[in-house]
Each structure stands twice: as structure tokens, then as C-alpha cells.
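agent> Task received from the user: take the single chain below, predict its 3D structure, and emit C-alpha cells. No templates, no multimer pairing.
agent> Plan: (1) validate residues, (2) run structure prediction, (3) serialize to C-alpha cells, (4) report one or two observations.
agent> Step 1 OK, no nonstandard residues flagged.
tool_call: predict_structure(input=
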Amino acid sequence: MDSWLSVNVTTANVLSRDSRGSVRGVKTTIEKLPDKVLLNIFSYLSHKEICSMSRVCRKWRTIAYNTSLWYSVSLRPEISGLHVTSLDFLLSLISVRFGSSLRYIELPIELITHTVLHELANRCPNLTHMLLDFSTAMQLHDFSELQAFPTKLKYLCVCLSEVIFMEGFMRKIYNFINGLEILHLIGTYEKVEEEEEEIYEVINVHKLKSATPNLRVINLYGINFIDDSHIDAFSSNCIQLECLAVNYCSKVTGSTMKTLFQRSKRLRCLLMNQTNLISEYVMQVEWEKSSIQELDISGTDLSTECLIDMLVRIPNLKFLSAGQLNGFNDTVLNMFMEQGNVRNLIALNLDYSDNLSDEGLYKFLSRYGHQLQGLSLAGMPQITDQLWNTVLPVLNNVIIMVMGTQERLSGNVLVDQLMDGIATNCPRLERLELKWDPDNLRFSDKSQKAIDIFRVKCLKLKCLVLSDGRYYEIVKANFERADRLTVVRTTTCCSVSNYYLLQNYKDLIFN
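)
tool_result: status=success, residues=511
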């Protein structure tokens, strides 16, 4: 039994009144708690912990078997999922614990068999979200006998292998997935070497699109064979398409973007981070007729001319991510202000835009900063804490902010003054990241007071990310003393992004 449970529950003293109204102490134990209370306690535990608790006693075993605790299950131990040692044990879990309550499941390659999929189809009629991880596969199981597959899926995430062709498996499930609304195909971008001998098209996108006509959200992440023809294929059949993400698909050039917008009239979110867009193709798009509201073109090397042409023609842009672009300069920002529609913009990311000046940004933010909910200006040495302190009074609606650079600066950042300014002007703040090198942060012996004020005034704060160093330790200790244990994090394991503000953010999450 975990120590927190034994100490805080089994030795609890409960005050009650006798028949004459006097107060007397009554010792109680966890066995006397109602089953509903125990069930609620168990809901805060991981499935691994629930399995351990089930061995304590018969009552706890009954609670642990309650199917309401098993509506979302990960069986991938490498990401804190439950480690299932055998197929027989998994089949037992499906029949005894999962049942009709199961809504979401993640399966690693060794557990993706026709028997498991049959059981899920038969025993879990309300399963709507599934992740199939083939990323480490060197050989697939035999799916020739696969005759059943969950039919109510709305969300399907397939982590692709580098070398295993998926068509044999996919051919078996095409008839079961026509109700899909959200599709993730996750590639092996992080594993690809610079000089690659041969690229395999391990899944047939052209056949897949015919089986999934109802897709609203398509996320093709880091797939080395995805190109413009695959985007064209999806747009030809998915008339409900609202969100398309092709981040880190390096073969995408934008040659079919014009056709994409002509066909997909409902498309409002297009994420093309780190693709190889060609300015000529992007300028051919009829942006003025599009419904696009959210756009990510970071790291795409678009020209200044293209950026101006696009931004002044988009009628209702709310979210713009345009970092790491040499072509994005003060001229683009001025033309966007003067000829574009900036009135609805709520999120702006211009990270690592070295050709922007602090004067240009000040002019833009002083005019439109009051409407921004997300602002990311990281990786630019020319953007100092002085600029931030100047514009903070107009950033009163900001929810997400990212600032600072990891480069060593010649000057110092007066972090106490900055934190005080954020606390005073940004009461709605939920996520903040300071990327500055710890050696550039200057704070006084009174910094605890500044942190106290920041913590008390920014009560909605969920995440504060700092570089490892003395200031991080001070801030972390301050929040932990106030029982806000999970707020302060380091840049080595966490980062903040405006993506939280996307309308389809929850649909785009995968791991």
C-alpha cells in the first residue's frame, strides 16, 4: 500500500456528535469509506498503481476492476503505459476490465494481432479512439484471418515503421474505418539519417483516402515520402476537411495548394512547419477566397514578396506562426498592418526572425497587442527585456508567452522587474517560457518577493518553463512551498507553444 494512502486515510480521526451533542473522536479506517469515495480516489492513480492496489484486499480488487477506471488505456510502457507481458493477459483485461467503458486505447506492435483486434471489436462497442504503434516493427503479424475491427472509431493514429509495408494490414480494415473523423499518420522524421539510400512508401495514401471520406482533421507528421500528390489525394475525397497538418514532411512544396483550397472550402487550419514550400506555388493560391484562419509556415524559406502577397490577401487570419523565416522583416510586418486584416489575430509566433527589428515589433504590438492571446518572440537577441517591459501593459489578454534566447547576451536581463511587469499586466496568463541563458538573468535578494507577487496574481498559470540554473531552483522552490508542484519546469523537458490556441488542438494531440 502506498504510504500516502495509509498515512492519510487509515489513521484519520473523524469528529462526530453523540446523542447529547458533545463532540467525540471516532477512529475510522479506509475500509469504512463508501465505494464511490474509493472509486474516486482510485481515479487519480495510474493503471500500474491500480493493478498494485488490487492486490491489497478483495474490496480493493473489486474497485480496481470497475470499468469506469479503464476508459482510456495506454499499453506502451515506454511512455508510462501499462506493461502487458502476454497476449492472454491482454485478452483477459479486455473481457474483464475494459468492456463497454473503453473509449481510448494505445497498442504497441507486439500486441497488435488479429485476436486482440477481434476482442476489442466484440467486447468494446464504445471504443472511439485508437493508436497503433508500428514504429519499431521489423515484421508484422499475420492478419490474413482478421475479420473484425472496431467500427465506431472517430480517431485513428498509426505510427509508421521505416521499412514495413502496411498495405496488407490496411486492406483488412478499410471497410471498418469509413466513420473516421481524425487521422494521424506519424512518420520517422527523427530517425532519418541525412543521407538516405531509399525512401519507402510504407502506406498507400491514395487507397486510404478512398476509405475515409468523412475526415475533418488530417495530421501527417514527419513522413519522408509524403509529397504534394498525397495532399491532392486527400483533398479530392475529403470534402469535410477542416484541418490539415503536414509538419516536417520535407517533400511538400505547395504545388497542389491552389487545388486544395478550391476543393476544401471548409479548410481553416493549415500547418506546414519545416516543409519546402516554393513561393511561386504559394502565391498562386486564391487566399482571398479561402476560409483559412490558422496558418503555420515556420521554417519554410518563403520570400518577402510571397509573405506580403499572402498576408495582405487572407481575409480572416487568427493564428500565424511564421518563425525562422529570413524573408519576414519589418516591411512584411508593416504591409500586414497597413493592407491586411489584423483585427482578428489572436496568436503570433515570430521566433528566430533575425531580420525583424525591435522598433518594428514595438509598432505592431503597441497597436494590436491588446487582442493577442498568444505571443512567441524567442531566439532573437535584439528583442530584450526592455522591449517586453514596454509592451507588457498592452498584453493584458495574453494567455501564452514565449520570450528570450539561449544565446549569451552582452547585456543582462533584469528578471525581477520583468516578472513584476508580467504579474501586473497579464492576469490571464496560463503558460510562460523564458529561454534566456541562466548566466544572463540578474536578480536581487528581494527576488522572492517578485516571485510571490507573480505567483499570487497569475493564479491561472499552469506552466512556467525556465532554463536550468539558480533562478530556476529559486522559482521552483517558491511554487512548491505553495503546493503548486507541477507548474515550474525546465527547457530540457518542456516547451511552450501557441499551438494550445488552435481550435483543433485536442484533435491534433498524439504521442
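agent> Step 4: summary for the user.
Residues 87-98 form the longest helix (12 residues).
agent> Done.
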